[in-house]
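Sanity check

After download, print the first record. It should look like this:
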Amino acid sequence: MADSISRRLFTTLGAGAVLGAGARQTLADDKPTSPAPPKPVEAAFERDYPEPKFKPSWKKPQINRVLVADFVIYAHSELDLARKLIDKEPGLLNAAMDWGNGDWETALGGASHMGRRDIVEFLLDRGARIDIFCAAMMGQLEAVKAFLTLQPKLIDAKGPHGFSLHFHAQVGGKESENVLDYLQSVKPIELKPNPFLKKPGDASKSGK
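Expected structure tokens:
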């Protein structure tokens, strides 16, 4: 009799455990899940013009887009990680990322509009191709003048994310005040507060 009761009790408890586990799983399944982060999507494209006669030979694989994106992102503010990735893949140096709708950005472009002189100097030392936006942030007045002499319309050029020449000179701080004054003499604009400009008393952006 005792054995029979024990068997019935064991069966009842076992069934309860199974039902309880099922209920817990149902509740877990009903919990809202965080949406997956958006992934880049290549725009649909079909030629409406003659196909080029020259056919490039793809002898080596392209650098992975995730690696390019990570390098450009780190170059905005993380010198050690930017150095680690370029040591891993030197071809990243002048790689550009399209953040969408032709918003192309290189590591040098990101470091420049953030005012990160330490990262810019590191990239230039590795051989990055300097442009007018970088020159403006670095306070290279003669280089900026030369660019604008060559192509005056560059005064209205936009860098990554639409940042202007004036913006780049502004984020350069005191070292690029001469460039900002020159740009204002060529085309004066209303200067809004720059969100990336280091304020007096702030710790060094380079973390030193």
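If your output differs, re-run the checksum step. Summary of this record's structure: Residues 169 and 181 are 9 Å apart (CA to CA).
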